[in-house]
Specification:
The protein is an alpha+beta fold. The chain has four helices and seven strands, in the order ααβαββββαββ. α2 runs antiparallel to α3. The longest helix has about 45 residues. The N and C termini lie far apart (about 110 Å).
Length: about 200
Amino acid sequence: MKAAMKPMIEMWLRARRSASELLVDRSGLAAIEFAMIVPLMLLLFFGTDEFSSAVAVNRKVTLMARTVSDLTSQNISVTDAQLTNFFNASKAIMTPYPSTPVKATVSELYIDPATKVARVQWSKGAEPRGLGTSVTIPTALQVGGTYLIYSEVNYAFVPTIGYVMKSSITLKDFTFTRPRQSLCVMYATTVCTTS
């Protein structure tokens, strides 16, 4: 029986010595700390990169909305070809980001003198508004009997991690400008409509 216990006692003593040596040994500590910190560092790096890309794209969406509105408001009348050119020119602003997820719409609004409600006179683009539908505008722009050019831009921003997760963030902006060359910007009419 003693002979059978001796190997177990030796094995127990070896395990105990190994455990105490392991507690004293610090040679792999840096590697373990590095392995624990690397995921956090990578998360911060890629998170910062994605956030800065989203901010840059959001700024470009704002510039696109202003450009479409500005180009339209500089005309007395516009045609489909001109509006297509305005949309194409504004999409160039998105460089180096893809312009495929862009949805831009431009509309002309007439502000009723009695009710101060802005109604759509015409609308063109990816998601045109219905004729006569009302649009909420800021109080400072509610000048009865005047017109506004209203542009809206939506952009489906897909972060790099979104290609894995298949999700997108919708960035959008809008802007109002007054017609510059005439009372209104005519589209498919020869007079400014008020209905």
